[in-house]
Amino acid sequence: MHNHGKWGCACWGADDQIGAANLITPEKRLAALRCAATGKLYDLAHTTGADAPYMQPNQPPFLLMMWSTWRDAIRRRRAIGMTNDAGSNVERVEMTMHVGTHIDALGHVSKGDTLYNGLAAADTLGDWGLNRLGIEQAPPMITRGVLLDVAGLDGGEHLLPGRAVTPQDLQAAADKAGITIEPGDIVLIRTGWGRYFGTDNARYLEGEPGIDVPAARWLTAQGAAAIGSDNMAVEVLPNPDHTQALPVHQHALAEAGVYLIENLALDELARDGVTVFCLMVIAPKIRGATGAPVRPVAMV
Known about the structure:
By secondary structure, the chain is of the alpha/beta class. The chain folds into two domains: 9-48 and 98-299, 3-Layer(bba) Sandwich (Glucose Oxidase, domain 1); 63-94, no CATH class. It is 20% helix and 20% strand. The chain has helices spanning 26-33, 70-79, 121-124, 167-177, 201-204, 213-221, 247-256, 267-271; strands at 41-43, 63-68, 90-94, 102-104, 125-126, 129-130, 141-149, 164-165, 186-190, 210-211, 226-229, 259-262, 276-281, 291-293, 297-299. The strands form four sheets. It has a nine-stranded mixed beta sheet with strand order 1-15-13-7-9-11-12-4-14. A two-stranded antiparallel sheet has the order 2-3. Helix 7 links the parallel strand 11 (226-229) and strand 12 (259-262). The protein is globular.
């Protein structure tokens, strides 16, 4: 097992499956709650539906259809003697766990055959999902959230696809906001690209501004528990090095054990000038899944 730095998986032992979430201690949670003074909530999730963007061919579309309707339910219940006509509606959903606002499990991306904590992908992933590092291992995250707003760096309302956000850009945004990133923080990066989610999916998917590998390393070295952004992949697409696919995912998930949260809605936070807040991110415990939809909430 390789030591990936101060906050890498070597810190937490060979059996660890939660990665940098180890940095969200009880003391960190209590300190995060003290960030809230008014009780105002910011919903950082987009609504997920059939109009949600998805990347072909790796991602299937979101599909929701009715499994049982009130008419069917009443008819079946009448047939067995029920008289109060209780109609119930039940749906069936087919989707990837990586549609809409979601969090990546640590087992989502490998570096070659190696997943987080030195696990062999061939031994960890089967036909029924991950037997280790699935999203059910991700603990509820209640911690300090910080917003680094880089959307206006180039003079417009948003950065453009292929624009790499560097460590220097992040440091400048942190300095402007008066923020020092602390271990266990979840760092959210606003590029402005989220304005096209669900409104112009073709444009949203043509590429995206996002962090490069040095920026990811800068964040993980400071103890970020998770990194989120208002785009599909957190990282810059296409990568300036056209020989590289998802290198930020490889570093964050497979090397450092730092979670990625994608397709966030961050414009309201930025509009109100909110840069530090209590952040709650709780993923459903879906056994073996490589990610899960989430509804992150910031409280101030």
